[in-house]
């Protein structure tokens, strides 16, 4: 590993706390509030963890049980990688979740002729998962080399806020492409969700309960609770009995089959879908997503440091964060994780 230059070891003063932020990197909420905010972060991660397998697993030939198992695996390893990043990586308040940059390479593996011609759905799912594992393991080695060799530290010196802001913005805009069509498929639930969330978080944010801006800080949890009760009432009252099948799948609360198909306790383990298979075409396609993920993560680290009023992360810290982000990725990819490295 390259030696850290002396000028990079000097203390950088923390940034001024942004207006409207109550907590910074050195302050902690109470235990009760921390648990509530942590659960809200879990709900945010749940959206990505459900959306990616819901889109990919059926194309692989998997059933509802396979989809539930992939969701459980994705959530489990998201927590592990977040702990590693906050304890040993950049040590910034960041959640390491799934990345949509890997969706296109995974889709190319799914449509590979050697896999698509398998007649049995479950066998095709297993073979596709093994091929995806192998491609992720090979491509992750690039990130490990760039991170721990400090080569990415050299590259990150050329990243300015002017370049990082569009990158982070495009990451968020990429979610609109996946999320808004789902909202339109059930507009009677999706549209009220958007309206209530904006009203609570922007126009009722000054409402305090025991000196805590409860509606601003926990607006997502309040919206999800209200809208799920509303959707369940529509389902139980028979509002979707005579609608199209696509509408029932999108709007009813009893058609996803995730809860009924999931095990109460499921701990992912390496090679749970079999030994990974390696293919040069799959690996090179996944390497393109690796470079996109590197830039996304670097921009997210810089943005998290500024929002948390933390010391601007030096180049060697960013490189260390990239290294830790994927040091466990080889092991986790063997568990069959989709789009998290």
Which range does the strand content fall in? Answer: under 5%
- Please report the total strand number as a whole number: 0
- Major β-sheet profile: none
Overall spatial form? globular
On the 0-100 scale, what is the average pLDDT?
A: 80
- Output the helix-strand order: HHHHHHHHHHHHHHH
Number of contiguous helices: 15
Task: Classify the secondary structure makeup into a structural class.
Answer: mainly alpha
First-last Cα distance? 22 Å
Low-confidence sequence ranges: 6-12
Rg from Cα: 21 Å
Proportion of residues in helical segments = 55-70%
GO molecular function: transmembrane transporter activity
Main location: membrane
Family: Belongs to the nucleobase:cation symporter-2 (NCS2) (TC 2.A.40) family.
Membrane topology: Multi-pass membrane protein
List keywords for this structure.
about 350 residues; about 0% strand; NCS2; Nucleobase-ascorbate transporter 2; transmembrane helix; membrane; transmembrane
Summarize the structure.
With 341 residues, the protein is mainly α. The protein has a domain at 45-183 and 264-334. Helices cover 65% and strands 0% of the residues.
Topology of this protein?
Layout: H1 31-60, H2 64-87, H3 103-110, H4 113-116, H5 121-148, H6 151-156, H7 161-185, H8 187-203, H9 214-217, H10 219-236, H11 245-251, H12 258-261, H13 280-307, H14 315-327, H15 329-333
């Amino acid at each position: 590993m390259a030696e850290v230059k002396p000028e990079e070891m000097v203390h950088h003063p923390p940034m001024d706390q942004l207006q409207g932020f109550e907590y910074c990197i050195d302050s902690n909420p109470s235990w009760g509030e921390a648990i509530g905010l942590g659960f809200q972060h879990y709900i945010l991660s749940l959206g990505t963890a459900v959306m990616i397998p819901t889109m990919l697993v059926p194309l692989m030939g998997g059933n509802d049980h396979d989809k539930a198992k992939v969701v459980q695996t994705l959530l489990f390893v998201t927590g592990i990688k977040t702990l590693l990043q906050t304890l040993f990586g950049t040590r910034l308040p960041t959640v390491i979740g799934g990345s949509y940059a890997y969706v296109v390479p995974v889709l190319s593996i799914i449509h590979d002729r050697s896999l698509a011609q398998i007649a049995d759905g479950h066998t095709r799912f297993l073979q596709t998962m093994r091929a995806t594992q192998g491609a992720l393991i090979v491509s992750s080695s690039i990130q490990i080399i760039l991170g721990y060799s400090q080569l990415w530290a050299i590259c990150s010196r050329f990243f300015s806020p002017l370049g990082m802001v569009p990158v982070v913005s495009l990451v968020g805009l990429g979610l609109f492409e996946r999320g808004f069509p789902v909202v339109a498929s059930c507009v009677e639930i999706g549209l009220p969700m958007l309206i209530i969330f904006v009203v609570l978080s922007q126009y009722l944010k000054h409402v305090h309960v025991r000196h805590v801006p409860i509606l601003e800080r926990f607006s997502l949890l309040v919206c999800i609770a209200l809208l799920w009760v509303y959707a369940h009432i529509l389902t139980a009252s028979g509002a979707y009995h005579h609608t199209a099948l696509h509408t029932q799948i999108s709007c009813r609360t009893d058609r996803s089959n995730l809860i009924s198909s999931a095990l109460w306790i499921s701990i992912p383990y390496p090679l749970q879908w079999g030994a990974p298979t390696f293919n040069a075409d799959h690996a090179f396609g996944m390497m393109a997503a690796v470079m996109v993920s590197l830039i996304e993560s670097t921009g997210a680290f810089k943005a998290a440091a500024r929002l948390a009023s933390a010391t601007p992360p030096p180049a060697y810290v960013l490189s260390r964060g990239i290294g830790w982000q994927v040091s466990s990725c080889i092991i986790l990819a063997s568990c069959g994780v989709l789009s998290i490295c």
